[in-house]
Each structure stands twice: as structure tokens, then as C-alpha cells.
Amino acid sequence: MIPYRKVEFHVSEKHSMIHYANGPSLEEINHTVTVPRDWGFWKTLFAYSGPGALVAVGYMDPGNWSTSITGGQDFGYLLMSIILISSLIAMLLQYMAAKLGIVTQMDLAQAIRARTSKGLGIVLWIMTEFAIMATDIAEVIGGAIALNLLFHIPLVISVFITVFDVLLLLLLTKIGFRKIEAIVVCLIIVILVVFAYQVALSNADWGGVFKGLIPTADTLSQTRKASDGLTPYAGALGIIGATVMPHNLYLHSAISQTRDYDPKDKKDVARAIKFTTWDSNIQLTFAFFVNALLLIMGVAVFKTGAVKDSSFFGLFDALNNTSTLSNPVLISVAKSGILSTLFAVALLASGQNSTITGTLTGQVIMEGFIHMKMPLWLRRLITRLISVIPVLICVSLTSGESELQEHTALNNLMENSQIFLALALPFSMLPLILMTDNKHQMGMEFKNTLWVKILGWVSVIGLIYLNLNGLPSAVSGFFSDNPTTAQTNLATTIAYILDILILGLLIWTLVEFHFGNKRIDAERRAQQNQQKGNA
């Protein structure tokens, strides 16, 4: 039953820097971390802890920051429920992704490619690459701004400096995967402590916080508008779009295989799934708290409506400006400059965390979809240089304008880049739920239970609908913050065309997926019959 892959893994000799590879997912670290078989719960959990942290980073990257803080500024604690629901959905999807990798010994990209044609595999690879580059743009912007704020390095130079984080990655590849996991956990703790400290100094209405965890009719209102024109529905879409991202599913399905369990032993597989799920849920709980603290900052740290510039520059300045802060304690601390400095440090930590996970994910999809392998540092260098281009263009186009316009343009670029995530999302979520619900390939012991299936389909359909429904506003954001009627109509037309293309490609994927599943089931039955005959 486990694994079900029929084709033997082949790894070619490495005669060149870029070469063919069809081996285990992230072969260099696959099954390299020793785990106990006879230890107690906590020691075993510690041995399995780590992959969840790398996944959780994607749920607290720079792309999440402005949406959560702006949501708090505009609507108080109303959108707390959206952060909670997004986090619970993330836990469910990451559980299925990890389970797929552990049971089948294939990551999500390999599993999809095994069921689709070469042509469709290339299309899906390109789409997923764009989604990863979209997240990389947020990392470039966040890292460059953090360097500018901390060390007063000109923004253009800061953008180029972010390219050299490839040197950090080179160093990390030499120290072992377990130590990389530890570094990521430490950076997450830095981010959590910074925001917890700032919120602790504020006078947060904790009754309002807990009340906001319960969704109401106003949570997705499209009629209620804040002073900046944002509706709760748009704010909720921003939070969801910045939270549930397809590349995390690919990453988790690969790094869940780093532990050295026996894939042919059902009890060992069940143990791996159990502790990997614990690890993932604990780390994603930390991510929930980070995002919740960001929203609370928008409400309690700043005066309502005081932050006019929601970019990272604007938030940094607001933490230095005593007139924007909500109480005397914060004002007293802000005078020392520590609030704004800690914010910039957390931003830099977030960007460096995403450097590691983004590169690993890129390698996963490249190997899985097109069987091409290259060194991690080269992969990082190429994607980072590509991601730097739109940021430099944005900076150059606004160089003659006011500082606020430059900041707003960078913030809009970061938010608008998330459109590719909405486009790529259905092509990872639907295959994931279909594969983990297949009893022939997962086995009756590991296929989705009824409640996981129901919650999975509700989550998948709901997220796809919200993302596609939010395309018109996302596309209009490319034109202007305040688009004209003609621009809005054009954006709506473009969004409908994109919806049709997505649905057409989705149908193509599902058709090939259906026949691919049948083929794999038939191959598996033939293998079983052959084994019985030999016995």
C-alpha cells in the first residue's frame, strides 16, 4: 500500500549545474533526521518539530502585515474571526499536505505530475513559479525597507542587497536541516515577542478581541466602508489571500519526509502523521497569534484612523510619532525609538525566514513538475533577481514623486502581486483533497475521514470562490487606488476572462487527474496481483 508510486526513482549523474532529476523529494534531506520509536510523547514531538515552523513562516511573511494592521485600523476587532478561520483552514490543508507526503513518499508536485501530461505539467509549473515569485516580491520589499529603516541604506541599494541573502542560504545548506529548522523557530520567536511586547504596552480591549473571534453579518459586509473606502469584505479577502498560499502545501508535502520513518510500517507511518500534525498545528497557532497581534496593533497601539500611510514606512513612522499612539505608556516608550526599531527588526527577520522556505519550495516544484534540479543557491539567485526587477521599476517610476506616493506604490505592488496566488490556489488545493481522499492510494487507514472530507471541501470551495470573486478588485488595484468607472469596468472584464481561463485549465487538470488516478489504481492492482502470483 505504501508507497504507491510505480515508477522507480532515477537520479542522473551530475555532469552539469542544472541536470535531470526524478528522485525522492528534496533528496539531500529526505529521511535524514533520525526519530525515536520508543520515546515518550514530548521527546518524540521534539524530534518531529521543525517542518511546521518552515510552513508557518509563510503565514506571517511581510505580505500579511499590512492587511492585518489595516484591518484593525479600519474595522477594529471585526476581522479577528477571519484570521481565526483562515488559520483553522490552514491547519486542515497543511495536515492533508503532510499526510500525502508521508504516506505516498511523493510531494504534491510529484503526485500531480504523475497524473498529468507533460504539457499540463509545464503549465502548472509556470503558474506555480509565478505564485512563488509573487511572494518573493513581498520579501524583497520587506527586506529592503527593513535595511533602509535600520541602517539608512538608500532603497535601491537595499533592494540589491536582498539579492545577497543567497550567501546566507549557501551557509545554511552546510550546517544541516535540523539547525535550519532551529534558526527559523528562533526568528519566529523574535517576531512574536516584538509584537507581543508592543501590544502588551497598549490598552487592548480583550473583551472586544474575543468577541471579534465570532463572525457576524458585518464580517463580510460589502456596504460598510472605512474612511479609506475599504469594506470588511475587501479586508477579509486581503487577509485570506495573504494567509492561505499554495506554495506552503508543496513545501509541507516535501519536508514532512525529512524524518526517518519506515514507509512500509503502518504504525510508523501513523506515528509520523500524528507528530507531524502536532508540529504543524502548534507552529500555525504561533502564526495565528502573530497575525492576531498585528490586527490588535492596528486597533490598540495606534489611534483609530491615525495611520494614513499603511506601508511599512508609514507604520515605522507611526511608531515614532507620539501623536498617533494610543496611550501614555506607548508614547513614553516610543520616544526612545525602541518601538519602531523592534518593528524593523521583526520585518527583517520575517524576510530572512521566507528566504529559506521560498527557495526550498521552488526546488520542490521544479523537480516535481519538470524533473529539473539545480543548486539551491543558484535557484535562489535567479528567482530573487527576477523578483527585484518589478521592485526597481516601481522605485524608479516614483522617484520624482512625493515620499508618500513612493511608499504607497511599493505597498500596492506588494498587495497586487498576490493576484498570482489567487490564480494558482485551485490547482494545489483540489488535487490535494482528491488524492488524500483516495482509499486505493492512501489506504483505508490514512484516507480522509468523513469530517475532514466535509471540512476540506467546504474550505476549498469557499476559498476558491472568495479568491476568484476578489479578482475584479485585485485587477483594478493595478490601475489605481481610486480607479475610474472605465478602469473598474475594464478590470471586471479582465477578471472574468481570467476566471474563464482558470476554470478551463481547472477542468483540463481534473480530466487528466481522473484518468491518471485510474491508471495508477490499475497499475497498483496489477502489482498486487503479480505479488500474489509470485507468492
Automatic annotation (TrEMBL):
Q: Which PANTHER family does the UniProt entry name for this protein?
A: NATURAL RESISTANCE-ASSOCIATED MACROPHAGE PROTEIN 2, SOLUTE CARRIER PROTEIN FAMILY 11 MEMBER
Q: Does the keyword Phosphoprotein apply?
A: no
Q: Where in the cell is it found?
A: Membrane
Give the transmembrane region(s).
75-98, 119-145, 151-173, 180-200, 230-251, 284-302, 329-349, 381-399, 419-438, 450-468, 488-511
Q: Which UniProt keywords apply?
A: Membrane, Transmembrane, Transmembrane helix, Transport
* Any one GO molecular-function label of the UniProt entry: cadmium ion transmembrane transporter activity
From which source organism is this entry?
Nicoliella spurrieriana
Q: Which GO terms describe its cellular component?
A: plasma membrane
Membrane topology value: Multi-pass membrane protein
Q: Which protein, by its recorded name, is this?
A: Nramp family divalent metal transporter
